[in-house]
Amino acid sequence: MTRQIIADALLAAAVLIVAGAALGVLVMPGAYAKLHFVAPASVVAPVLVALAVFAQEGLDENTGETVVAVLFMLFAAPFLSHATIRAIRVRQHGDKTR
């Protein structure tokens, strides 16, 4: 019962973070500002979901798979943000590298 409450609380926090990030993306005026609000949804929320899986399942095969997926997301997030900013810059200013 306690595990379920902890998992539900962690999932609720993840949902609130994603909803807040979506609201930030909706109201921000430019693409650069919008990209700042993507980080909590792509970094913090998956960690909370992984913690919820760990709280619910304990040490299990599902927990291991979740940790691998979250680690991939954590390592990929900065590269995806950089590639997105680069694509926006190239679209706005052309392919000037320096």
Describe the structure using short key phrases.
elongated; mainly alpha; 0% strand; 98 residues; 4 helices
Brief characterization of the structure:
With 98 residues, this protein is mostly helical. Helix content is 87%, strand content 0%. Helix 1 (2-27) runs antiparallel to helix 3.
What do you see in this structure?
By secondary structure, the chain is mostly helical. The chain has one domain (2-93). The protein has four helices and no strands. The chain has helices at 2-27, 31-36, 38-57, 61-93. Helix 1 (2-27) packs antiparallel against helix 3 (38-57). The longest helix has 33 residues, at 61-93. The mean pLDDT is 88.
Mean pLDDT: 88
Backbone CA Rg: 17 Å
Q: What's the SSE pattern?
A: HHHH
Task: Kindly report how far apart the N and C termini lie.
Answer: 58 Å
As a percent range, the share of strand residues is under 5%
Structural class label: mainly alpha
Uncertain spans, ≥5 residues at pLDDT below 50? Answer: none
Shape verdict: elongated
List the helices and strands and how they pair.
Blueprint: H1 2-27, H2 31-36, H3 38-57, H4 61-93
Helix pairs in contact: 1-3, 3-4
